[in-house]
Structure formats: C-alpha cells, structure tokens
Amino acid sequence: MTDRLTGAAGRQYVADAIRYALRSGDLVPGQRLVENDLAESYGATRGAVREALQDLAAEEILEIVPRRGARVRTVSVEEAIQITECRSALEQLCAQKAAARANEEQRAELRRIGADMRRAVADGAWDAYSALNQRLHELVVEASGQEVARRHLDRLNGPMVRFQFRLALRPGRPAQSLPQHLAIIDAVASGDAPAAARAVAAHLDDVIEQLRSSAVPSPTQAPPRA
C-alpha cells in the first residue's frame, strides 16, 4: 500500500493544494469538499485532510457546515473591498517601517524583484509576474519587522485568494499595476517612508476600484466565472 502524507507535512501539503486549486479555478465558491475525495486526490490521510480543512476554515477560506462537511466560502465583492481597505492600512504601516528598517540585502532583493517584474510584463509571463507580486508584498512585510501586522495580513489575505487571481488575469492588469509596484519598491529601497505609504495606498486604492468594477460586468464581456 502506498504511504500517504500525514502529520504536519500532510496537513500543510493539502492546505497549499487547496489554495492552489482556488487560485487556478479548479475549486469555486460554494463547492463542497469531501474528505475521502481529497485524501485520494492528494495522497494524504483523512486526518491530515481534516486538519488542513480546519486550518483553512480558521483562515475563512472555507466554512465547516455541521453534518455537511466543508465548502468553499463565498466572499462578496463588498467584503473583498472591506478586506482590502483593512489590508491597505496595515500594508502602509509595514511599508513605512520597511523603508526605515530594511537591510541592504532586502533592499537589493526589492530592486531585483522590480527588474524581474519589468521583464515578466515585457515577456507576457503572467504567472511569473503574479509570483513576483506576491513575493514583493511578503518582503515588504518581512522587512518591516511588524509581526502583529503580518499575522493580521495573513488572515485577511486568505479569503482574497480567488479575487486576487481573477484580477491578475484581467487583460492589461500586469502592465497597469507594474508602475504601482515599482513605486513601492523605489520608495522602500530608497528609505522614503512617507512615499512608501503613499505608494501602497495608491496601489490598493486601485485594487479596490478594480474590485468595484468586477461587480458589474461590461455588456461586451461574459460575467466572471463564479
């Protein structure tokens, strides 16, 4: 019999696999998740699956329904906007602190990310750009040393996984967001705390506008897949 993933490693693997399935559209809001099916799909024990589902429910990515099991939680556009407003306040704080506290290695990595983002947009490498985007936001938080903000941001970002993925795939979105990300990088890397906060605020204000526009599909476009 093939060994199945178990313990902390299995729990983490299943949770990460479900997050990826949400980003890629393989799981959709309201979809029910069956422990046995997940255990078979991911080669994990039911115990590891159950613990992963509980972790994702704590992050508000899933919800556990009594006697029905787990299902993907539906996040409304209005909730997504409110989450992004909270995220903006915390990320502005982190950007200010990162501008003051980042070490030379972190500043150099920020600049490398900026250069790689430019290349990804020029090459149309959207998956690479998305990964760089995620790393940029993580690095700013790491450099800030603000652990309380980091914990709150981790919790806020969980339910936003699907929205972030859908926005990233909008035609022209990477080219639109690139200057915003470069402004964050330039401000943090140069140690300009007020400019770093302004750059983060401008970027996330734009994300909020994108979310608002996603609530009303254009007459020439099909509505986003639910």
Automatic annotation (TrEMBL):
PROSITE patterns, alphabetized: HTH_GNTR (PS50949)
Keywords: DNA-binding, Transcription, Transcription regulation
Domain of life where this protein originates: Bacteria
Protein name from the UniProt record: GntR family transcriptional regulator
Domain named HTH gntR-type: residues: 8-75
Keyword Transcription regulation: yes
Organism: Streptomyces salyersiae
